[in-house]
Amino acid sequence: MTILDGLLEQADLPELDISGEEVEYARKFAMSRVHEVDLSAAVVTWVERIAAGGDRPAVRDETRALGYAELAAEARRIAALLEREGVRPGMVVAVGGVRSVTVIAAFLALELIGGVYVPADANWPAKRVSDVLEQAGAVLLFNTDPGETTPALAEGAAAAGVRVVRAREAADCPLWEGEARLESLDQPRYMLFTSGSTGRPKGAVVEHQGMVNHLYAKIVDLGMTDRDVVAQTAPLGFDISIWQMLCPLLNGGQVHVVSDEVSYDSVAFAEVIDSQEITVVELVPTMVRLLLDDLAAHGGARLAGLRWMLATGEELPTEVARRWLLEMPQAGLVNAYGPTECSDDVTHHIVTLGDLELLRLPIGTPVINTDLYVLRKDDDGRWHACEPGETGELFVGGHGVGRGYLGDHERTRDAFFRSPFGPSLTSRLYRTGDAVKVLPQGALQYLGRVDRQVKVAGVRMELGEIEAVLQRHPSVGAVAVVLHDFGTGG
What is the pLDDT of residues 49-81, one digit of tens each? Predict the structure, then answer.
């Protein structure tokens, strides 16, 4: 069975309940950004093109480093092994193990043979591994670790009835021959499992065009060149890991895979940033705060060569941004926002000192080839367009919008719609569930989840906005605001 068997067709997606008049109104206030990029090649094709122009360093971890030609050759050997083991185009292959150069080579191998990548993190418990393998319909687990298979991976694969193939078996394989199998730009490329409100993870499927567009979005907005070195720090189950592994490989840059042991130790991580001349790092804001704290306490590394710090995955507090801008002026700070279902980030915002006067930092404007709409659902049950300054729910259109949740048609229909806004890059629209508003300067501001919007005496209020005000007091470490209805009895 291929992955397409578990996905809805475009025609099966619901229509958004919005009038023609409101569609025109929403178009007027839409945030769109079109940028021409070449989406017609797989990443592995770019790796081989760069290698043909003269080998150069491509990827490295704590145990080894590969140039572009070596990386391409390893990917082709793995592709030959996977095809020998019965993997065919459209089939899902789980890639399990610790983060390493081999994981990157395995991803490129799946591009070659047209397979679909799903990660199985070595740190997951066995039950999580088995759940992911079963829901993904993985035909095998490709274990990238050089030693024995991690017990949780082995146990999870056995419980799911999925056989394990070891990376070391590819050492003697001939190089797979032929061009990367890319039949269409909407070909499924990878699947990541997000946590659902029911506790059952959802397998979000991302297309080739969405993935590559997001890689180019980082290159365009960060001005990345062949001199950049990106730190690969994110666990394999997080969408951040995809661009960290692949983005530099489109233009001759390097990927440095940082081990968990180092990435969770701020002082050691800072030393690696300096010693390995890393120029781009993306962390959750909590880790950015810890990095600043530890550098202030222990000194040493100063991140002199760092060009960009991206903060994502949780709201970036104004206080953390202020510290970064004052203590690390050599490195720009980007507030990035985006859901896994839309190929990762859909907005970027370069934080300035002027932003620090706001209660909450902007999440920015659309990345390339992305359309953003702010809509609200009123008491009539229909969607209406929001003007700048009004609070509504964010909807995303464009190249990045994925195919939905594998084998979960009900939840797909809850979040994905046929776009009513005319011809677009995918004709799909994703409902994020996030409350936002457009600021006067034209950037979006994130206000929390829409289910935290309340009405008091008929007035809509955002609990997250109240929390942001209270959080600014220097004596407040953490705050949570909830609404209680005490009735009318006084």
Answer: 999 998 899 999 999 999 999 999 999 999 999
Beta bridge partners of 98: none
Q: DSSP H helical segments within 66-207, as ranges?
A: 68-84, 101-113, 126-136, 151-160
Sign of CA dihedral 99, 251, 110, 400: positive
Whether residue 459 is contained in a domain is answered as no
Gap between the Cα atoms of 276 and 279, Å rounded? 9
CATH code where residue 386 lies: 3.40.50.12780
SS (H, E, C) 229-240: EEEECCCCCCCH
Q: Are residues 214 and 117 located together in one domain of the fold?
A: no
Do the strands 308-311 and 202-207 form a parallel or antiparallel pair, or are they unpaired? unpaired
- Say whether pLDDT at 335 is over 60: yes
- Average pLDDT, integer, range 205-209: 98
Q: Are residues 238 and 303 in the same domain?
A: yes
- Where among 181, 197, 226 does a domain terminate? 181
First to last CA, the chain: 62
Q: Report d(CA 262, CA 153) in Å as an integer.
A: 23
Tell me the HSE value of 417 on the side-chain side, using a 13 A CA sphere.
18
d(CA 324, CA 307): 13
Cβ-contact 402, 62 below 8 angstroms: no
The whole-angstrom separation of Cα 489 and Cα 487 is: 6
Is 453 a residue whose pLDDT tops 60? no
Residue identified by tokens 């990386």 is 71
**How many distinct structural domains can be found in the chain?**
2
**Is pLDDT larger for residue 464 or for residue 40?**
40
Residue with token string 């092994």: 81
* Structural domain that includes position 387: 1-35+207-447
pLDDT digits (tens, 9 = 90+) for 373-425: 999 998 888 999 999 999 999 999 999 999 999 999 999 999 999 999 976 66
My answer on whether 305 and 251 are in the same domain is yes
What ranges in 144-238 are assigned the alpha helix state H? 151-160, 208-222
What's the predicted TM-score (pTM) here? 0.91
Q: Is residue 469 part of a domain?
A: no
* 112 and 175 Cβ atoms separated by less than 8 Å: no
Residues 214, 253, single domain; the answer is: yes
Distances (CA, A) of 56 to 69, 112, 123: 8, 21, 32
CB crowding 132-161: b at 16 or more within 10 Å, else e? bbebbbbbbbbbbbeeebbebbbbbbeebe
The amino acid present at 425, given as its one-letter code, is L
Residue 479 lies in a domain: no
